[in-house]
Structure formats: structure tokens, C-alpha cells
Amino acid sequence: MIGSRAFDEIWGHGSPDNPRAEFSALSSWMQSTESEEFERRLQSAEATFRQLGITFAVYGDKEASERIIPFDLVPRIFLADEWRRLSEGLIQRVRAINAFLNDIYGKREILKAGILPPELIFRNPQFRTEVAGIRPPHQVWAHICGIDLVRTGPDDFFVLEDNARTPSGVSYMLENREAMLRLCPELFREFRVAAVDSYPDMLHGTMRSVAPVGREADPVCVVLTPGHFNSAYYEHSYLADSMGIELVEPADLLVDDDVVYMRTIGGYVRVDVIYRRIDDDFLDPLVFRPDSMLGVPGIMAAYRAGNVTLINSPGNGIADDKAIYSYMPEIVRFYTGEEARLPNVETHRCREPDALGYVLDNMHELVVKLVDGSGGYGMLVGPASTREEIADFRKAVEAEPERYIAQPTLALSTVPTFTQSGIAPRHVDFRPFILTGKGKPQVVPGGLTRVALKEGSLVVNSSQGGGTKDSFVLLDDGAPVQRQSQSQGGEA
What we know:
Layout: H1 24-32, H2 35-52, E1 55-57, E2 66-68, E3 71-78, H3 80-104, H4 109-112, H5 118-122, E4 144-153, E5 156-163, H6 170-183, H7 185-190, H8 199-209, E6 221-224, H9 233-243, E7 246-248, E8 253-256, E9 259-264, E10 267-270, E11 273-276, H10 280-283, H11 299-304, E12 309-311, H12 317-320, H13 322-325, H14 328-336, E13 348-349, H15 353-361, E14 366-370, E15 379-381, H16 387-399, E16 404-408, E17 414-419, E18 422-431, E19 433-435, E20 442-443, E21 448-452, E22 466-473
Helix pairs in contact: 3-14, 8-9
């Protein structure tokens, strides 16, 4: 079983009685806390999340289309040295992603150099010819990135995928920390944990720094949501409220003479920077899908004219594509002149005949994914699948091999997790958030840890039964303790 040979981030390859030296205090806390107390605190967290409306959508599930995402009290912990190494790799990767997007919608030097096959770009539905030639302020395309990481050993981190369109989950990172401060204050007395509550200020600063030319002094920033029926609406409203800016829907905006305005009680107000949470297809019915009821007609004309900044930039989906992901080591090398500090997971591109043959012969051992899939859908975990499921998936891959990649089934690291039978290891992944504006990218000192709550499962997506944990980043010895946003005096 995969879990039996996985590296546990707290226990190492040992046991609860013999944890990694840095985490003996956490192991003692887990052993000394009664199951009834864990359950009581978890119920308190769930009640708070339900009251706040922190839910996610389960599409196709008529009985429970909106659910509370499960939350676990045992934190994941990153040592200060680990975090420094991760941050360096994340900054390098995000810089390469921005350079790639700027190039592929501009001079396309990477294609001229023969690094990528042209058809991988031009036949990709995520490549938007409508934005070719546009130059966003400071040549930043991916202002907010979520880079999904997995770990297989003490020093072995791999990038699983890049999220450069509208990476979600930051509200869970913030609310998980609030819950931990309230429910487990003793852990913050034991560990020196970097604060994450400055994220809204960091995001607002990033937005202001990329305002259009001539609007830098006091730009008007907004968050654009498709509306309260969207599965991430809570996050949209949470971030707008935390930043002190307006949350707007498409009907609140209009474009006149290539300038975007917001309707207010006091009249029209010019808008300079829009953090948009609407996909490209629905953003502007005059440019993309003409049947979109969610878009703002003319917003792309205003963007092309340089009168508004869109965060993240339209067209970024090409950097999310899993086939492009497989070339990221070459992309990083081409744009930075360095080897990638965070390696990819080994990836087989089914569009290549030799790789396709290997995948078809070994599908029972591999994880096979749609290049444009997300949320745990459109994928096959070979070792956990039936013969019938593998046979059906093989037919799909044979029919359209260019739509699939495959990767080995990694022994993902585990973190102790509270279960109905007590504390037990469960597999995790990690999504840190990187903000890029004018200046050096900033890595938020934390992130979203997703946990596969089912024993032995490798699928961490909330839509597939996964949950979340708080992610502690430890400060250096002797560093000043950062202020947390909530009192650590005990449960409210």
C-alpha cells in the first residue's frame, strides 16, 4: 500500500513515539489531547465555517451541492530552512511563467528556438489570439499564482501543477489560521509561526502597483465576481472586504470610450485595476463567447488600450495546461538561464507515440490526467482503479492521446490527521501563493494544505472527499514573533 512506505512529515519513517526531533512537541500535543477534545474543537470550527458560509460546490450532487470543507486540527509544519528553499524555487518558477506568457503573446522567441513544438501552443484552446500583442503593466501576466507541490521525502519537493488563471483557496488558508488561533492557542506558544493575515494587504499592494500608466497615484481597485452562485463566492467577498475595496458583478460595470466605470450611488467612478474571478470565455461577449451573460462588453478593448489592468491577465490558461507543464524545466532554463530549483514530477506526454505506448502498457501503475482537467476530475489513479475503469480510460486515451499526460504514482508524504479511529497518517499536497506586481515576487508564508481524508487515498481535492489543514511556517530562531490577527488567549 502506498501509504505504508510514505514519508511522514512529523513522524519521519518512525512512529508517534519517535517523531522527527523538531516536532517532538507537536507529537506530544497529539498524544496528550483526548479524542473527545479533538472532536469538540472540530465541531466548533465546522460551526464557525458554516456560519460564515465557507462552502464549496459539488457539481452533479443534487443532495448536497454546497458543503463545508472538512478541516483538520493537526497542522502541517515547514521548517525555516525548508521554506527558504521552497520560496527561492517558487519565485524562479513564477518569473519564468511570466516571461513565457509575455513571450508567447509577443515575439515567441521560445518557438523560434525550437524549445516547444508550435502546435502545442497554436492548437491549444487556452491560447488566446485575442490578447496577442498586449503588454500589461510591468509585463506581469500572472499576478497571483498557486503552485501545487507534493513531497516524497525530507528534501524532495516536486511541482505537481501550475495555477496561473484564478487560483482559489486563499480564503481557506486565512480562515484555517483564524480557527487554529482560536481553538489551539497552545501551539502558537510552542512554535514561532509566521503570520498569514497580511495577505489581503499584500494583494491590495500588488493590485495598486500594476495600475495603468497615469493612474498610479490613487488607483481604484475592485474584485469582479460572477455572483453569489459561484462556488468561490465566499472567497471573492472575503478578499474584497479584507482589502476594503468594492466587490462588483458584471452589471455594476460599463465601458465607455475604452474606459471602465463602476456604477455607484454617487455616479460613475473610473475603475483602474480589476481582480477578475471570471474565466476568459465569459469575460467579454464582444471578444469571447457572445452568449455570455457574465461578461462586461468592451472590457477587452479597455484592456488593450491600456486603460485597465486585469488580474490575472486573460490568456494565462496556456501556462496552466498540463502539456505545457511537462516542458517547464526547459521553460525555466530558457528564460532564467538556470536549472529549475523545483523539479517537475516525471511526465509522459501521450501525444508522443513512444510515451503513449508506455502509458497504455502501464496504465495500472500510473496517474493519467486530462491536460485541461481540474478538481480531481478527468483523471485515473491506476493503482486505485478497477480493471473496468482502466479499460474505459484506455479507450479515451487511445481516441484522443493529445489530451492526456501520465505520471508515476508517487508516495506522497503524509501528515498525522484526526480520524474516527484516532490520529493516523493521511496524504497531503500543498498550494502556496505567490504575488507578483512591480518588483520582486512575494511568497505568502503559508498556504493551503489539502489532505486526502480517506485511508490510502491520493486524491486531496475537496470535491473528491478531501479536507484542509493549517500550514505553519516556522520563523528563524531569534526572529521577532509576528503579530497574529487574533488573540491567542483561548477559544472564543
